[in-house]
Every structure is written in structure tokens, then in C-alpha cells.
Amino acid sequence: MLTKRFFKTKEEAEVTFEHVCPSAEKVELVAEFTGWEPIEMKYSKKDNLFRLKQRLPVDKAYLFKYLIDGEVWDNDHAADDYIPNDFGTDNSLVNTAR
Prior knowledge:
Layout: E1 2-6, E2 12-19, E3 27-31, E4 39-40, E5 42-44, E6 49-57, E7 61-68, E8 72-74, E9 81-84, E10 90-95
């Protein structure tokens, strides 16, 4: 799930990435804005999900995926769009347009 918060005085958006995966020990966000390097998401026992907040420039679009336990790739089911990749699957897309 994606939630976005825009700032009146800054040209950036705070995007919260959330992924529910009850059987996972670790979920990582892998994205264009990370140079496709995994960033570990924090697990919230209260909400039973993995979460990561990231500030991104507004009016841009970025591809991303979730990596579960270092083995399984998954998309965000609430992504703004899906774009085919070179591996025969889709990447999730987050758009920071106001």
C-alpha cells in the first residue's frame, strides 16, 4: 500500500511504502531511487506489516518492487501503475505528481 504526503513549502513528497506478508521474516524495498539496492523495511507488530517512509521529489515516477526474505519478488497491489520489465514480469510504479 502507498500513502503520500505533500508539503506546501518543499518540492518533495513523503511516500510511505507498506507491505503485508505475515510469513516473511524480512521485506526490502528495491527501487530506482535506491539505485536498485535493497533497503530493509521495518516490521510493525501493531499493524502486522512492513513499512518504510521515503522522501522523493515531486512530479516524478519511480519503479520499485518488494523483495521478501531475499528470494521472492512482489509488487505493491496498490501501486499507481505497473510497467513490464526485462525479466518477463512487472514492476510497481509510484507517481509523486501532486
